[in-house]
Amino acid sequence: MSDLDIQIPSAFDPFAEANAEEAGAGAKEYVHIRIQQRNGRKSLTTVQGLKKEFSYNKILKDLKKEFCCNGTVVQDTEMGQVIQLQGDQRKNVSNFLIQAGIVKKEHIKIHGF
After folding, report:
1. Which stretches make up the SUI1 domain (predicted)?
2. HSE, side-chain direction, 13 A CA sphere, residue 63
3. pLDDT digits (tens, 9 = 90+) for 47-74
4. E strand or H helix that includes residue 99
5. Beta strands across the sheet bearing 80-86
6. Is residue 83 packed enough to be buried (19+ CB in 10 Å), middle (13-18) or exposed (0-12)?
7. What percent of the chain has a predicted confidence (pLDDT) above 90?
């Protein structure tokens, strides 16, 4: 019996990596930039997932000046604070957040059309 190296298969957990990523130090916090269709050609761009330490109102003020659009900060029960901007500003907001050094490019997810 000692000549044979028998390995007993252990239980395989297919979700072990996903759970480790969520709980571990390497977990990524994504910033989600979405577009919501209003009526007709009108749309809203929403930005969620920014870190709590940033001043949402200051970021909003700079975004509004940069892109000549109106916007607001909305408190949502599930998603926390969300920045809403008028129009399709997804690419503009993404470039702004990267250039300002608020978020790295690999941490941004753009959703929509």
Report:
1. 31-101
2. 30
3. 999 999 999 999 999 999 999 999 999 9
4. helix 90-99
5. 71-76, 80-86, 43-48, 31-37, 108-110
6. buried
7. 67
The rounded radius of gyration (Å) of the Cα atoms in the chain is 21
> Mean pLDDT, to the nearest integer, of 39-54?
93
32, 103 in Cβ contact below 8 A? Answer: no
What's the predicted TM-score (pTM) here? 0.73
What span, in angstroms and rounded, lies between the C-alpha atoms of 26 and 51?
16
CA–CA separation, 92 and 83 (whole Å): 14
In this prediction, residues 85-109 reach a mean pLDDT of 95
